[in-house]
Amino acid sequence: MRLVGERVARPERYVEVKKMEFEDSSLYHYAIFSDSVIAVSVVVNSAAKNAEEPWKHVFHVVTDRMNLAAMQVWFTMRPPYGGAHVEIRALDAFEFLNPFSNDKNRNSKYLSMLDHLRFYLPEMYPKLNKMVLLDDDVVVQKDLTGLWRIELDGKVNGAVEICFGSFHRLGHYLNFSHPLIKERFNTKACAWAYGVNVFDLDAWRRDKCTDHYHYWHNMNENENKTLWKLGTLPPGLITFYSTTKPLDKSWHVLGLGYNPSISMDEINSGAVIHYNGNMKPWLDIALNQFRPFWTKYVDYEMEFVQMCNFGL
Ligand SMILES: *[C@@H]1O[C@H](CO)[C@@H](O)[C@H](O)[C@H]1NC(C)=O
Ligand SMILES: *[C@@H]1O[C@H](CO)[C@@H](O)[C@H](O)[C@H]1NC(C)=O
């Protein structure tokens, strides 16, 4: 609320400017979809601070209408480190999404739309060829430009795989008792994770992945949600089935929001660490031993943050 008050007091400072960098495909582009100012600020701050050439990195943030003003004020008062660029837009700015957000269930639909934006990257950023999608509960610990040099071999999605033994295979996420799933997918195929994904947007357009997503989304609705239940991972596993290239695991270390036994070595050598799970680093229930990797990037000079006082 304090952040919004600042914008109301000085509206002239918060006119949206479209910078050339936002569409310059020679730069490194990231998508972050979130309704949390503090979470986004940590992602951007950590990525910029650990970049060798921060001014070449562009962060495309999309938030809901409620949080737009707060995000704009935050990044105007505390511009990203080293000349990195931030574009902040509201969900409403993407008109082609309106048919999906006009339901009677407006509020919950609207929120889940923020999650579903990840299936529209090429439509949202028509000028870009490649993007890295970062979840808002990650911390970047290394320069990420290497992600852009990875050869995806014509695949659409570069992601870290999460299966081991019989765990985290497609059978865990999709309903293989359903004939539509059974006849199209392999129950033993390895699942991958969202959090750090390299998307080749040209390959995505070529393979019409957005259409695949719509097809399966509608199918699941028609089948009374029996193909999969909740979340974005199951439809992601379907949409990018056989078009995902596994990345080296050090790019994306998972589980800091639920698994106390991740080794410090693994965390320290991770390019990105991910607090997936319920124990988010900004909550009281966070795993204490993992919290400092996140708080390190919280901007305590902002009086607004000091008032929030993250269990420190
Ligand atoms: C869909 O699921 C709901 C709740 O699980 C159930 O009440 C309803 O009968 C189902 N409809 C069809 C067409 O199967
Ligand atoms: C999986 O699909 C089968 C066949 O349509 C259905 O009977 C079953 O209820 C589904 N399971 C879940 C958990 O939706």
UniProtKB/TrEMBL annotation:
Which cellular components does GO assign to this protein? Answer: Golgi membrane
Give this protein's Gene Ontology molecular function annotations: polygalacturonate 4-alpha-galacturonosyltransferase activity
- What is the recorded membrane topology of this protein? Single-pass type II membrane protein
**What does the UniProt entry say about where the protein is found?**
Golgi apparatus membrane
**Which Gene3D superfamilies does the record cross-reference, listed alphabetically?**
Spore Coat Polysaccharide Biosynthesis Protein SpsA, Chain A
Q: Which Pfam families match?
A: Glyco_transf_8
The UniProt keywords, alphabetically, are: Cell wall biogenesis/degradation, Glycoprotein, Glycosyltransferase, Golgi apparatus, Membrane, Signal-anchor, Transferase, Transmembrane, Transmembrane helix
Pathway stated in the Swiss-Prot or TrEMBL entry: Glycan metabolism; pectin biosynthesis
Which InterPro entries does the entry link to? GAUT, Glyco_trans_8, Nucleotide-diphossugar_trans
Q: What is its EC number?
A: 2.4.1.-
Q: Report which superkingdom the organism of origin falls in.
A: Eukaryota
Could you tell me the Gene Ontology terms of the biological process aspect for this record?
Answer: cell wall organization
Q: Which family does it belong to?
A: Belongs to the glycosyltransferase 8 family.
Which protein is depicted? Hexosyltransferase
- Organism encoding this protein: Stephania cephalantha
